[in-house]
Description:
Blueprint: H1 3-13, H2 23-32, E1 34-38, E2 43-45, E3 54-60, E4 63-67, E5 70-75, E6 80-81, H3 83-88, E7 95-98, E8 102-108, H4 109-124, E9 146-147, H5 153-163, E10 167-171, E11 177-181, H6 182-190, H7 200-203, H8 217-227, E12 231-236, E13 239-245, H9 251-266, H10 270-277, H11 280-285, H12 294-316, E14 327-332, E15 347-352, H13 360-372, E16 381-383, H14 384-390, H15 395-402, E17 404-410, H16 423-436, E18 442-443, E19 448-449, E20 455-456, E21 459-460, H17 461-479, H18 487-497, H19 502-528, E22 536-537, H20 544-565
Amino acid sequence: xxxxxxxxxxxxxxxxxxxxxxxxxxxxxxxxxxxxxxxxxxxxxxxxxxxxxxxxxxxxxxxxxxxxxxxxxxxxxxxxxxxxxxxxxxxxxxxxxxxxxxxxxxxxxxxxxxxxxxxxxxxxxxxxxxxxxxxxxxxxxxxxxxxxxxxxxxxxxxxxxxxxxxxxxxxxxxxxxxxxxxxxxxxxxxxxxxxxxxxxxxxxxxxxxxxxxxxxxxxxxxxxxxxxxxxxxxxxxxxxxxxxxxxxxxxxxxxxxxxxxxxxxxxxxxxxxxxxxxxxxxxxxxxxxxxxxxxxxxxxxxxxxxxxxxxxxxxxxxxxxxxxxxxxxxxxxxxxxxxxxxxxxxxxxxxxxxxxxxxxxxxxxxxxxxxxxxxxxxxxxxxxxxxxxxxxxxxxxxxxxxxxxxxxxxxxxxxxxxxxxxxxxxxxxxxxxxxxxxxxxxxxxxxxxxxxxxxxxxxxxxxxxxxxxxxxxxxxxxxxxxxxxxxxxxxxxxxxxxxxxxxxxxxxxxxxxxxxxxxxxxxxxxxxxxxxxxxxxxxxxxxxxxxxxxxxxxxxxxxxxxxxxx
Length: 566
């Protein structure tokens, strides 16, 4: 590498996101980069210009980011700009103007795009060696024990002891697989007074929940938490590969989570359940510094919160006047999407049969049980038709139709869906919510910069970034005729259906993951410091990496909102 290229590589290597690149990759970037000079006041990017095909990095001088004559952001040496528009394919939505005589490195799209993608994945992705990110087939640690259904439980227990296993797979003649665990032996055989000659087929769980070999450890952990199980057979093309246990996933962390899940499931009264629910903050704090991504952390919290809500309602049911059938409790919002952060309040509602009502005292008793276990608010109960009629003008009703997930109960009829005649009004309501929260435009030394020159001392990252992405995904997926789902799933659906351009959906998905990582890291730091978690970030304390990520997020979200608002 000649001296000129070496200088470019050295400059970029000290600045995010290029500091994540290997020397060879930096060399590739340096080879493609050119140095541009802009006199003070010169326009570098035009707000109404065409697609952005270059990434620019300020070498010296300063760049004003301006929209309709207002200063949105001030960039200095090392700051990159144009990447959000370049990746999304949308116009920049701002004007970049040299605040003084300025030098910029200009890097072509073809060179910048793949290397920046690798830099970002390297920054956000944990080690592939961690169990969370390995296929479950590679996590099998113990010998696989099998028994025919006619074998005695004594024989099954002997085989498990000999192999050092805590479960045996029962192979039925029709190809069905069952499972008998050490806990089953204690609970279903010994405690029940059954003889050792009892056939395992009589006490095994069948059919068993099985997984494919390529499922990731983090995905299996979530499924185990939801189902309250500790073992999962791995099956490929009908062939048993082995059995993965909870202890194979995240070692001590997983055991504490499963211990909490069992405490919730086995709570005999609301006092015991409230005690188990009180352990959640400590369990979340144990994740600080773990290899888990933020997406996985929020799914774990959601799974445990789901279990608390379901068990609370089950314990409160006797004597509450709640009917045995025809009532369903649905999670809504972040909980329904399995995206509960440490600041997201769990929310739910009851759907009752047409013409049915829950007595006020029944609702009061159920709400008190939920609040006792740390789940705030007073639930509302309406029929399917009542929820549907209220949806266009009621946030909770809109969530019940478009952002819900059944948690508990037995429905007497189908849950409410977005009806075709009222669809236009509901879609307008969703679209308005997608455009309500406008992201900030950037930062100065100590403040967040907003439109109309507004400055704020703290960045509410949920309001500024998470909410607009979530709402755009909800509108786009519902417009495509899709039901409720997680934000990333909705963006995939929207891209496939064409309600969002594929490039815009990918940009929003990347932005969502970046913001979620920042939110969870901030909340974990607060929890560790003994402070109540919030979503308020201090701009003065942000690293250049964080500021760079957020600038890209703001630009990406604003660009999609502008297209949606046309």
